[in-house]
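To assess whether the prediction recovers the assembly geometry, we first specified each molecular entity separately, as shown.
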Amino acid sequence: MVLGELKKIRDSKRVTSKIITLLTDFGYRDAFVGTMKGIILRINPWATIVDISHGIDPGDIQAASFVLAQSFSFYPSGTVHVIVVDPGVGTARKAIAVKTEKALFIAPDNGVLGRLYAAQEKCVVREITDSNLFVHPVSRTFHGRDIFAPVAAHLSVGVPFASLGPEIHDYNRGSSKLPRKKAGTIIGEIIYIDRFGNLISNISQADFSGKEIRSIQIKDIHLDHLSDSYGEKNVGEALAIIGSHGFLEIAVREGNAGVKYGIEIGCEIRVFICR
Amino acid sequence: MVLGELKKIRDSKRVTSKIITLLTDFGYRDAFVGTMKGIILRINPWATIVDISHGIDPGDIQAASFVLAQSFSFYPSGTVHVIVVDPGVGTARKAIAVKTEKALFIAPDNGVLGRLYAAQEKCVVREITDSNLFVHPVSRTFHGRDIFAPVAAHLSVGVPFASLGPEIHDYNRGSSKLPRKKAGTIIGEIIYIDRFGNLISNISQADFSGKEIRSIQIKDIHLDHLSDSYGEKNVGEALAIIGSHGFLEIAVREGNAGVKYGIEIGCEIRVFICR
Amino acid sequence: MVLGELKKIRDSKRVTSKIITLLTDFGYRDAFVGTMKGIILRINPWATIVDISHGIDPGDIQAASFVLAQSFSFYPSGTVHVIVVDPGVGTARKAIAVKTEKALFIAPDNGVLGRLYAAQEKCVVREITDSNLFVHPVSRTFHGRDIFAPVAAHLSVGVPFASLGPEIHDYNRGSSKLPRKKAGTIIGEIIYIDRFGNLISNISQADFSGKEIRSIQIKDIHLDHLSDSYGEKNVGEALAIIGSHGFLEIAVREGNAGVKYGIEIGCEIRVFICR
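The predicted structure of the complete assembly is given in tokenized form:
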């Protein structure tokens, strides 16, 4: 890449974005991610490529949706987010692009953007059909390389969102469960467990705002109040806290709650509130 | 780094490249990779450093060669690729630089570039001997830091390839096995297993181009045709497909073929073709 | 990010640095790291963010201190290093910023900078108290996002170090053990084991400089000299060597010494020297 060419690209009016994030289940050993980055840099050598995560478990759409929801809002306006957790690659599932007020998202239409749709007031969703933007020949097994990466890179150099393909309304809104409420009880479940073994539920602070908590119960753990910080308990003790993600979380101070209590995704959690 | 200095470097005619990729077996915990990046940025603060992978199994030259072959051709012209999978560090093995029509490669001369040599019409190979380009004192255990990273960075700021050291012809061409063909049968083997458990063989589409496939057999799995996509089978079923890498691959739809069938690297695979 | 804005930021006199490194125990699956990068890029879209490592074991302050010590000195002047291994998040432990002659460091005051203090002649340490630099509301569980990342980004765009908060002198100097010496013996211990199973001790070359080594003993392994390179032994044989980090290391050529000999962090190692 000769500097003069870089300069020309940079100075072009078509350059309107530079940050492209990647969130995949491609892991950290194979060539998948490195290949996508090459494609992006060939189209936009000026791009700042940021890895959100490539450690999503293979095909774990729910985890990817959660990780995206935790991170995207902290990025500058105009960021292009690419999400490739795509167990249905090669089937009839669509490739889509989504525009919100601040950002663009490129992903398979399999529900991985479910938490994005839930969080944003306005999402315009388009099916990606303009094959001029693809890498050819398009494989049937690696659309991260052949469709998602090049489309994101083209958007980042000014290709208009509206040109990608037709707007659609029957997109996959995902299947994230909301907690149920009945007579003094909020019944939720564990939806994500992080590296530290913290058990993150689908119960948000808003679900019991203004109400006094009587107790919190998960499996045979009973906690009588929400803690303000991990440090409030002794090392090794369990606590309930509203985590940095805004959801009710069960943690063990300087320990791993998931391992200690043998709790997995889907485990029920109950919050008893005063009426 | 004061911006004025950056600007001077950027505007200098010596800056002719900016992308440097890293492919190593250094993993994601130790200081190895972070140290190499520091060296590169000290020499070329304008570099765009891209991680291809650091998750190659320790010393797995074959895997690194395969991952490189999958990714390098997607990078812009002028990219400098650094490959450090170097079980022989501190022995007499040479450090080499390779120039192809489009890119530069820095690596130990241990066969890790074998698939590159096989894929490129013209490779000029030089032994790296100009110790002015090294970080001193040069250790006997970490040439990624002391030789490979600084040489790559110097190339990226315009040090001429020809100045690195003498051209050599007796470089290590690697030992990747080609499939054998006999009377209606192509006999290959599994050369790489990816994160999804897909079993990638050394049989390429060209090996049976124009021929009709009668069946494909690996261990006690028999498949009667090549599938066009994972979606063609039911979830959990095995299939044979030409993967995005161009090789015959055995996969399980939304499953892990390697784990399901207990198949490892080196396992024989046979394709029976109509004569 | 419109290019004109980028240009303005770049040309501003306030931009004095561009490299920000990250060293955490956040792993490679969750949203923690991606979130920190978003925060940084929102404040300084011109930043070059470099991952040192996110694979530190949860809460392993000693390992993080070692990895930092191996890598920071190779970075350009003005680099801002962010270290978030923070088991005490939400307790009274301080957030600190440290200035050395060449670089800036942002971390919790829990000893993770112990090896930095030991290596640098002059460190100015400030408690970070200027909450104008934080992301609000500040959570009690994720100061990487709310304090450490934004403070680092603000430093990189020219916020003066002195404005972060008051200088302190009672900071946590860490607890890295030095080897003991008695009558012809240096008694150290294993302080880090790398991906390759190399056993790194706290005995540095300086500890026996000028002295002839009679033998080296760890567990039931006895070695009669320091090797110059891994290649000096046969594949699978143990050796002692001064590693690229400057410490005495026990390795197995093309093998894993930690696994082969069942040796863990804290294991005693003795060097017998001629008096």
